[in-house]
Amino acid sequence: MTMDPLARWRLVLGEAAEGALGNSLDAQGRGMDAALEWLYGREGDLAERDVRGRQGGQGPSALTVPDWINEVHTLFPKETIERLERDAVERYKIDEVVTRADVLSRVEPNETLLRAVLRTKHLMNPEVLAVARRIVEKVVRALMEKLSKEVRQTFSGVLDRRRRSPLKVARNFDFRRTLRENLDRYSPSERKVAIERASFFSRTRKYTERWQVILLVDQSGSMTSSVIHSAVTAACLWGLPGIQTHLIAFDTAVVDLTREVTDPVELLMKVQLGGGTDIQQAVAYGARLIEAPRRSIVVLITDFYEGGSPEMLVRRVKELCAQGTKVLGLAALEPDATPNYDRDLARRLVDVGAHVGAMTPGQLAAWIAEKVRA
């Protein structure tokens, strides 16, 4: 990450340097300043030494510990993150999340806390890790309940209005036919139709052959939400008729997590976030898993900031598309689908046949289903 030298000095010196250095911080710089002030602004002995400590210019911070952890993982490079976390735990004793099970157990489980847990689980002792695991279970269960409904509806087929079904399923109810066939049982005095026999539509599956769905998930520090939602999405896809799911996590190494797909909690507890990114290596691994190219979908979930060879990545994606494999590039899996990715590299992948989008987990399932049915 490159930064203007004046902005660097402004971050080091704090608000005291505002007049001399001017307004040298952009939006990201102000976020970094607030995160640094949250931590280093509590230096207790500066006043005693008559030294004015660094001060952020944004007023009192309302960051919680989980919020702060997630902020620094978004704003700073890996080596800086490690230093900040170490200072927080060892120097300033901000250990609520990583060392105190009683505090962690009182925090309301949510995705923000889940991201913080995944980023700091390597610092936890066994007692705290057990509490953290229960938090992961609660949040994942809630995500599963929400997403599994969307996935089942998406892959359940479409109504065939020409055929009737003996299966009485509410969402297949044929209102018009039912009303038409029971009009002779209409009561003018009660203004009601007595239903003697209800009619239901049949459903026709749009896919009959097995498809492979290979999810390649970037597990670098900025992609935590994507890792969470990919694990849940893979678990929801697992076991669907006609769908064979693979889940691969990567940074500069590639880890096949397919065996853990049925237990997304265990999967997430094994993920190691952080490190560099070698996307082309992950694509090469995914390509080796393909059994039937024209019935395979490779979903590349990343910010497209390639630490390996962009040229090799473009070549590998081009080869997949040329053999009939559908390649989907997902730039964001945040709940609000806020895109943050290398648009130039994404555009190059689109030029060789890939499809790139930014969407929520539910939309991803619909996108996969659309490609299966095409």
Automatic annotation (TrEMBL):
Q: Where is the signal peptide?
A: none
The residues forming a coiled coil are none
Which SMART domains does this UniProt record tie to the protein?
VWA (SM00327)
The UniProt entry, under Pfam families, shows: VWA_CoxE
- Which residue intervals define the domain VWFA in the entry? 210-369
State what protein this is by name: Mg-chelatase subunit ChlD
